[in-house]
Amino acid sequence: MGLRELKKQQTRQNISHQATRLFLRHGFDRVTIADVAAAAQVAKMTVTNYFPRKEDLALDLHEVFVAMPARTVAERAPGESALAALRRGFRAAVREHDPVIGFSGEPFARMIVESPALTARLREFHEERERALAAVLAEETGAGPDDLPPRLAAAQLTGALRVLFEEAMRRTLAGDDHEAVAAALEEAGKAAFDLLEPALGDYAVRLR
């Protein structure tokens, strides 16, 4: 990474850090872009250049969140189905306490659920990842972009991930620590993927 790119990354991280600090202290809806800019010691335009939407200042894992299921399926091993790849990826994320699957801590989780703007934006993230996964499944199975099987499979697979994410949030808000959430998600994940196994266990198996 060159010096210019490093500087941009540091600026982005500082803006995100200062925004999160203010959101947790005052509530997302009470903090303005001007407040974030002042805390980060940058211009308002700099904030909006890095984060065009205020919601993305709080939910700054947008790209990773949306791409995760599609990337996991695209990188699956020979002989592995889309379902098996996502099961494996989810279990790894549970072990790592990955924020992408819902590990956040109670203050952050509460900030999200108490803001209609953030809950709406998070819903958009889930919809985007479903479309991204459907596109990869269509490519991997040789289907057309408007064919039903990839879209239906993506809806079921990302639907399971969405329920598991909501379960992580629910338990976090109930006061469970990361270890307790992980134990619950390990069990819930097994139940979710087992339920999908009869329909999708043999779907999109990588041949080579």
TrEMBL record:
Protein name per the record: TetR/AcrR family transcriptional regulator
Domain of life: Bacteria
Keywords from the UniProt entry: DNA-binding, Transcription, Transcription regulation
Domain (HTH tetR-type) ranges: 9-69
DNA-binding region, residue intervals: 32-51
